Amino acid sequence: MFKILIYCYSEGVRTSREIEKMCKYDLRILYLIEGKKSPDNSTINRFRNKLALFVEKILYLNNQYLLENDFIDASSIYIDGTKIEANSNNYTFVWKKSVIKFKSLHKAFKL
Question: Does residue 16 sit in helix, strand or coil?
Fold first, then answer.
């Protein structure tokens, strides 16, 4: 089940109903399931809730495995600061001049 979630998250699928649909029709996930019955959305949600308790430990063990087998080098650590614009609404940005103007008006009315 964990490998199904990892694959679906990497494909941008987050909801349990869409994951359930992918488990039934996507050949790549059918390969991961290995001929077993595909899980329904409540099973996926229960697994995710239980998984939340162990995510930090799983990631730690994964990093340890990668370090021990020389897949990664711990001499340098990089943090990705990439900013990606969300596509929620075209008018959610704020102009700097508007913020400055609003703050000055707010200070004027506060006095």
Answer: helix
